């Protein structure tokens, strides 16, 4: 059993009727087919009645035009099989050509522009019947798959082609085009460029002040000063939060750097003082050992004389010799320790010099980087100033034009539409409907003269 199908496009109700009949149904004599044939005739009668009412309602509905895409289905009821036969080559989506014709397999070219869906459905059915030689006309279902686009031109943000949707109004169409814009489309771009250029220039100026503050810190470090001497360009703007923050941050970095340097140097100086004390102690010990060695040597000489005279034994000579050797060995140890301590002291002096050199090299590296940054910043500032100067030459006329429009002019919207086969230009309001193929144009008008009433033709 086939049920009716209702298609609603752009507010128009179009029945989707699948009706077919054939003279073969009347000549069918099989008793088993009488009841289905009777039912089919009843069903076709109901469908035709429903379809006639629906098509009568939509007789003056939407007219097909170029670039519309139609969804077409053609069926034929065959009572011999009790099935609805679908003409597959004629089923699918078809686009209306720029000439307003519909090209279909089997049927050929069918004029479609200006026809309603009902009229085109009848034309397709009639063409198919004549082309194939059917006794009775098959039934075609025609729906709008997608509408032809509409266009927006004139004083809008983004003029161009847009896809149509049923129920579209003028205000919705203008919103799709970005809204109404000023007469001079460059005004907004010029203002945006000017604002962006001024913002870039302010950012570059702030960067330059920061570089000046950094350079003052580096100069203080390289000169060995105990405080930063900021230039008058910064100190004169000390009341400004940004300049005050820059000087405060650079002074903080300078103080932190000085504390770090002083801590390292102080630590090395303490180690140096310990080495000096150790050297003094070792020298005193070496002097004491020298006296002991001298006494032990004298004692050994006296023992040697007594042994030569036979007044003492050789065991005493051995003890005196061992005492001298031990004292000399200790003296050598002290001399070696003194030498090593003197080496450590020299290394500490080198470390102190290395600390100062490391901080100085870091400052020199930062100073070289600052020179490059200064050069780049100066070039960017010159470029931004040149761009602003160029905008200032061009912008006044555009801004004056914008002020004139906002003071004495308003905007009107017209639509170019095909009505009864002829192109007409109509004044529309924001809630009027937009149809496929319309060309909306936003124009500037004079508030003092007033505007024509909506939908009054020129």
Task: Record keyword descriptors for this entry.
458 residues; alpha+beta; 5-stranded mixed beta sheet; 4-stranded antiparallel beta sheet; 8 helices; elongated; disordered N terminus; disordered C terminus
Report on this model:
By secondary structure, this protein is an alpha+beta fold. It contains eight helices and 13 strands. It is 56% helix and 17% strand. Helix 5 packs parallel to helix 7, helix 5 (186-223) packs antiparallel against helix 8 and helix 7 (241-309) packs antiparallel against helix 8. The longest helix is centred in the last third of the chain and has 95 residues, at 314-408. The radius of gyration is 53 Å and the shape is elongated.
Strand order of the largest sheet: 10-9-13-11-12
What portion of residues belong to β-strands? 15-25%
What distance lies between the first and last C-alpha atoms, to the nearest angstrom?
A: 54 Å
Shape: elongated
**Helix count from the secondary structure assignment:** 8
Itemize the secondary structure elements and their pairings.
Blueprint: E1 5-9, E2 12-16, H1 23-27, H2 34-57, E3 69-78, E4 83-86, E5 92-95, E6 101-104, E7 108-111, H3 117-132, E8 139-146, E9 150-154, E10 160-162, H4 170-176, H5 186-223, H6 232-235, H7 241-309, H8 314-408, E11 409-419, E12 422-428, E13 439-446
Parallel strand pairs: 9-13
Antiparallel strand pairs: 1-2, 3-4, 3-5, 3-8, 6-7, 9-10, 11-12, 11-13
């Amino acid at each position: 059993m086939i049920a009716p199908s209702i298609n609603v496009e752009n507010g128009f109700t179009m029945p989707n009727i699948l009706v077919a009949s054939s003279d073969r149904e009347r000549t069918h004599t099989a008793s088993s087919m009488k009841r289905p044939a009777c039912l089919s005739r009843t069903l076709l009668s109901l469908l035709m009645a429903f379809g006639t009412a629906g098509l009568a309602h939509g007789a003056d509905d939407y007219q097909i035009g170029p670039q519309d895409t139609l969804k077409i289905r053609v069926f034929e009821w065959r009572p011999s099989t009790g099935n609805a036969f679908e003409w597959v080559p004629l089923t699918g989506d078809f686009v209306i050509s720029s000439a307003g014709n519909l090209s279909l397999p089997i049927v050929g070219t069918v004029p479609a522009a200006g026809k309603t869906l009902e009229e085109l459905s009848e034309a397709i059915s009639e063409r198919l019947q004549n082309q194939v030689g059917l006794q009775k006309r098959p039934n075609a279902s025609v729906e709008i798959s997608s509408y032809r686009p509409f266009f927006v031109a004139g004083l809008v943000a983004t003029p161009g082609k847009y896809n149509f949707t049923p129920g579209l109004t003028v205000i919705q169409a203008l919103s799709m085009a970005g809204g109404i814009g000023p007469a001079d489309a460059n005004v907004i771009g010029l203002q945006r460029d000017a604002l962006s250029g001024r913002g870039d220039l302010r950012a570059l100026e702030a960067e330059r002040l920061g570089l000046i503050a950094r350079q003052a810190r580096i100069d203080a470090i390289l000169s060995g000063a105990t405080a930063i001497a900021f230039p008058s360009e910064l100190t004169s703007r000390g009341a400004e939060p940004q300049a005050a923050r820059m000087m405060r941050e650079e002074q903080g970095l300078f103080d932190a750097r000085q504390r770090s340097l002083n801590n390292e140097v102080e630590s090395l100086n303490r180690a140096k003082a310990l080495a000096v004390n150790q050297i003094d102690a070792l020298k005193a010990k070496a002097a004491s050992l020298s006296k002991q060695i001298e006494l032990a040597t004298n004692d050994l000489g006296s023992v040697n004389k007594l042994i030569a005279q036979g007044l003492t034994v050789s065991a005493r000579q051995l003890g005196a010799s061992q005492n001298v050797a031990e004292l000399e060995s200790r003296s050598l140890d002290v001399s070696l320790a003194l030498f090593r301590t003197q080496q450590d002291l020299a290394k500490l002096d080198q470390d102190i010099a290395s600390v100062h050199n490391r901080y100085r090299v870091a400052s020199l590296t930062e100073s070289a980087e600052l020179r490059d940054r200064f050069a780049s910043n100066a070039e960017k500032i010159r470029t931004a100033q040149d761009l602003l100067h160029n905008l200032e030459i061009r912008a006044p006329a555009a801004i004056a034009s914008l002020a004139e429009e906002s003071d004495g002019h308003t905007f009107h919207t017209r639509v170019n539409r095909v009505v009864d086969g002829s192109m007409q230009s109509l004044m529309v309001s924001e809630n009027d409907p937009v149809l496929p193929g319309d060309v909306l144009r936003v124009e500037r008008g004079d508030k003092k003269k007033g505007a024509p009433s909506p939908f009054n033709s020129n």
